[in-house]
Amino acid sequence: APFQMDLYNYFIKS
Amino acid sequence: LEARLEQAAMLKRVVDAIKDLVQDCNFDCNDSGIALQAMDNSHVALVSMMLKSESFSPFRCDRNIALGINLTSLTKVLRAAQGDDILTLKAEDAPDVVNLTFESPESDRLSEYDIKLMDIDQEHLGIPDTEYAATITLPSSEFSRITRDLSALSESVAIECTKEGVKFTCTGDIGNGSVSLRQHTNVENDAKSVDISLTEPVALTFSLKYLVNFCKAAGLSDRVRLCLSNEVPLLVEYGLSNNSYLRFYLAPKIGD
After folding, report:
1. Which residues of A touch B207 (CB under 8 A)?
2. What DSSP character marks residue B232?
3. Is B214 helix (H, G, I), strand (E, B) or coil?
4. Closest of B82, B121, B119, B99 to residue B4, by C-alpha
5. How many CB atoms are closer than 10 A to CB B212?
6. Which residue ranges of chain B lie beneath pLDDT 50?
7. Which residues face B153 on adjacent strands?
8. Are B126 and A11 in contact (CB < 8 Å)?
9. Which pLDDT band, with edges at 50, 70 and 90, does A14 fall under?
10. How many alpha carbons fall within 13 Å on the CB side of residue B45?
11. Selection from B95, B25, B6, B2 nearest residue B246 by Cα
12. A10 membership: H or E segment, kind and range
């Protein structure tokens, strides 16, 4: 099954 | 902070559109306006709101402050405002409460509420500037209809954008369905047009539950903008007047 991307990891802490 | 909104309806709609996604949020106030950025608990959706100072008259914010507000509490108080009431938000330096007043434009009725603030330790996430491969601007009512219709059949939707147009496809237990839209200019009413700008074909799959949720913002704007790039979160943007906006980012389902 496709997995759900984790936005926390995508939007790197600035 | 002192920020006066001509129509309480705007804030009522914004809060209504995001309250099921995020619960406790910091409203970051500075001289450019009021901003909010929050992620849902499952890290699938991110809300980014910007109410520019020009959307208020007057707007005054002498010192940067973060107002930590529980949206359920804010909803309870905003329910006491009529859509056409004049709404004023006030907070002092290092505040314990945010003060809201609702003035009826027709009568001498003035109501006033204080909401206790919370200390919210929220990590600020950087949203990179992205050159999206496909940008689709369509009537917000059309997008609401597509997500609602397809969500009756399936939990997820594939959005495919090519030079032919954009296709929303879903597969479920009872069968499958799709809606295709082509670039289309409505000469009588530009708000009904579908604009597609594409640099390369895109195909992504998303949870419909979240898209249906985002569509609660449809009352804020006639138009919605969808920005897609492969393996990048979808951006769903409802533009408000004075360059204010309500944006939602949604993580795609990727790989196998």
Report:
1. 4
2. S
3. helix
4. B99
5. 14
6. none
7. none
8. yes
9. very low
10. 21
11. B25
12. helix A7-10
Residues B9, B73: Cα–Cα separation, whole Å:
17
Segment B24-59, tens digit of pLDDT: 999 999 999 999 999 999 999 999 999 999 999 999
State the best of A3, A6, A8, A13 to mutate against chain B, taking most chain B CBs within 10 Å. A8
ipTM score: 0.86
Cis peptide, bond prior to residue B233, ω within 30 of zero? no
Structure tokens at B149: 């219709």
- In one-letter notation, the amino acid at residue B112 is E
Residue from the list B39, B233, B253 with its beta carbon closest to the beta carbon of A2: B253
Q: The tokens of B230 are what? A: 């492969």
Give, in order, the Cα–Cα distances in Å from A12 to each of A7, B26, B66, B124. Answer: 9, 19, 21, 9
* DSSP bridge pairs for B48: B37, B247
What pLDDT is stored for residue B121 in this prediction? 84
